[in-house]
Model the fold of this input.
Amino acid sequence: MSGWLGAAEWAAVFLSLKVAVWATLGALIPGVFVAYALARWQFFGKSLLNVLVHMPLVLPPVATGYLLLLSFGTQAPLGAALKELGIVFAFRWTGAALAAAVMAFPLLVRAIRLSIEAVDPALEQAAATLGANRIWVFATVTLPLILPGILAGMVLAFAKAMGEFGATITFVSNIPGQTRTVPSAIYAFLQVPGGEAAAIRLLILSVGVAMGALILSEIFARKIARRVGQG
Amino acid sequence: MSISVEVRQKFPGFELDAKFDAPAGLTVLFGSSGSGKTTVINAVAGLSRPSHARIVVNGRSLADSSAGVWVGANRRELGYVFQEGRLFPHMSVRRNLLYGQRFAKGRPEVAPFDQVIEILGIGALLERRPAELSGGEKQRVAIGRALLARPRLILADEPLAALDEPRKAEILPYFERLRDTFSLPILYVTHSIAEVARLATTVVALENGRVARIGPADEVLADPSFTPLGVRAVGAVLRARVAKHHEDGLTELNANGVPLLLPRLPQPKDDLVRVRIAAHDVILALQAPHALSALNILRGSVHSVRAGAGPGAIVAVDTQAGRVLARITQRSAETLGLAPGVECYAVIKSVSVAPQDVGAR
Done:
């Protein structure tokens, strides 16, 4: 297998996987929370939150990356404060994971929010009359019913994180072994003479990941329709 | 064992201001749609908070706006049977039934699991998913789930409204059993007069957000002025005991010494039943009719005559079997000279009493 991809390409694949896994896991809990808030709560600033969450979807990725650099760069107050705590994002793989998480967040939230909206609040009321407090209602009724939606969102977020380029390269540059993910590697290979073959191999890999993710998320989406659709 | 309820809430163009005390047994909150019944029951359940509420169940205060008390739905210790069942689709019937138990530790159970399963006849369904149940089965499971949550009060919001007639006939007896087997207060919302007649110990009639009438079911239903759904729905309830099942398919009842013949009833001999006699199925005669196909002829005297807005009138006749209401034309009432104290005969066709109008006690 290692004969098919070169060492530099393997490094990019492994880094991308690591970045995507951490980005997806890191975005998960805030994603569920924000999705629940948007689906079920009425509060001041709800539309502002909605806009903020969707911002990375419409903003040029380079702009998002630059914003991240301005906030989390070692020169920025927030970045400097985090550095005191030993957390550094700029020009590290952790920064690539942060950028990927921010870019994948809207996809994650959208999928989970739709699944929460498909759950009949009447079921949650029924659970409450049977003695369950809010946390129990969520854990035993809402969560099991939206699980396929969460999985679908995670698959989409993972695929998005695997493919994230613009914000990543702006925020953490393109350092081999540190921040050179698959898309950055494809870009780098295309800059050097004779790099096309490696670029095409990584391209095929990317197409495979994207298609697999879309199919999986479709399957999960159908599952949730079946689960929630029947009373 | 009693419920005391006081709920006030302003809606656009409508003001709910309901106040009633109900004794033990099954209290029916009765009224047409838009009369405020669901708002009241959801306030009792703690699902929606009205601007003013004072709710006491068996001496425990669940809500008291003047003292700032509002107990959350999950701490009210009740069992709510909803119109659409609301079973959890991702759980088996067994897990649905046991859902409330973990939150009810330390409270006495209403009945053990096995007894609830047996009474409701759902033993064969335990491993199924709600999606695999019929409408009637779902509602039986919903009743079981409410009972097994060890409630101190059972609430039911039009639990039969979503079912077709045969399913209604299937589920009604379970509520009768609930009422007669356990000493739990039950608050039951409906707009069906047949359900009131079969189930109610006490009737609370809501009209435009206010309690128009409250009292024991027999009394309220036998009152000719009680026509909340129009004169077509008027009918008194007689109490009787099953005396004999005849071979020609008729069942003979004994209503305070008066024999009543009805089409075959499922209840065994000596069971107490309540029979609703619709007012439009009763004919009045001044002399004892003979050579008549109708089998039930009750002798009595007119208690009151109440003319309606149209050509009809409701005549209340006190017979030995109990008070019967008859809906006749005002012209007939005048021709016969019906007035309080006049002796007459109430004629009831056996076949006009539908099986769903006969229930336990």
About this structure: Chain B has two domains: 3-221, 235-360.
